Amino acid sequence: MRYILVVFAATVACIYAQSFKCPPKDGQYEDPVQCDKFYECVDGRATERLCPDGLVFDPTIRKINKCDQPFNVDCGNREELQPPRGNNLCPRRNGFFAHPDPAVCNVFYNCIEGEANEITCTAGLHFDEYTGTCVWPNDAGRQGCNPGANKKLKDGFTCPKDQKTDEAGQVVAHPKYAHPTDCQRFYVCLNGVEPRDLGCQVGEVYNEETERCDAPENVPGCEDWYKESDEKKN
């Protein structure tokens, strides 16, 4: 039965290929309605071909392999595609795809023949399927991202809207902030938006300059932090 289906499919493909009229020059030519289908013409005879699942045919490419990512190709009226053969992380076997959880906007997958390679955007950026790259959230226009955004801790702390950068001007992925009144405590904003209340071990205080826990004598204003705490207990 399987052999019969294969023969039938090959016969149908042959019929379609025969209906395509090759131009005088040998080469590869797009199908008029299906963007991932093309014809290879040799001596006026057409052979039907398909791009790997997830890629589409670009007749403007001068290379032998003219199959490319959809965001790089203008399919025009060639709106049809072959049936997808993907999986949970790879809707099609090849391409760049968003995380299946719509709330996770900074993670995407580069799928190569059904194998998913997870990639995380630079801090503060969201993945945009239309361009296959990480862009600013306003440019991505995705809804429901970062469920932790605008979250407020019990003491009222929220992550600042302005992104924190390092000395090289790069956005800090998980910026830290000193507590305004407690030398031992500090905050971390996961992905710049979701606040966490953390603290140094007993005997140390948070050093805002080094962004590490340090000895009290190294942090101006916190030199006597533990002495004052002991006095309050007594």
Automatic annotation (TrEMBL):
<dbReference type="InterPro" id="IPR051940">
    <property type="entry name" value="Chitin_bind-dev_reg"/>
</dbReference>
<dbReference type="GO" id="GO:0030312">
    <property type="term" value="C:external encapsulating structure"/>
</dbReference>
<dbReference type="InterPro" id="IPR036508">
    <property type="entry name" value="Chitin-bd_dom_sf"/>
</dbReference>
<dbReference type="GO" id="GO:0005214">
    <property type="term" value="F:structural constituent of chitin-based cuticle"/>
</dbReference>
<dbReference type="GO" id="GO:0005576">
    <property type="term" value="C:extracellular region"/>
</dbReference>
<protein>
    <recommendedName>
        <fullName>Chitin-binding type-2 domain-containing protein</fullName>
    </recommendedName>
</protein>
<keyword id="KW-0147">Chitin-binding</keyword>
<dbReference type="InterPro" id="IPR002557">
    <property type="entry name" value="Chitin-bd_dom"/>
</dbReference>
<keyword id="KW-0677">Repeat</keyword>
<dbReference type="GO" id="GO:0040003">
    <property type="term" value="P:chitin-based cuticle development"/>
</dbReference>
<keyword id="KW-0325">Glycoprotein</keyword>
<keyword id="KW-1015">Disulfide bond</keyword>
<dbReference type="GO" id="GO:0008061">
    <property type="term" value="F:chitin binding"/>
</dbReference>
<keyword id="KW-0732">Signal</keyword>
<feature type="domain" description="Chitin-binding type-2">
    <location>
        <begin position="87"/>
        <end position="147"/>
    </location>
</feature>
<feature type="domain" description="Chitin-binding type-2">
    <location>
        <begin position="156"/>
        <end position="224"/>
    </location>
</feature>
<dbReference type="Pfam" id="PF01607">
    <property type="entry name" value="CBM_14"/>
</dbReference>
<feature type="domain" description="Chitin-binding type-2">
    <location>
        <begin position="19"/>
        <end position="77"/>
    </location>
</feature>
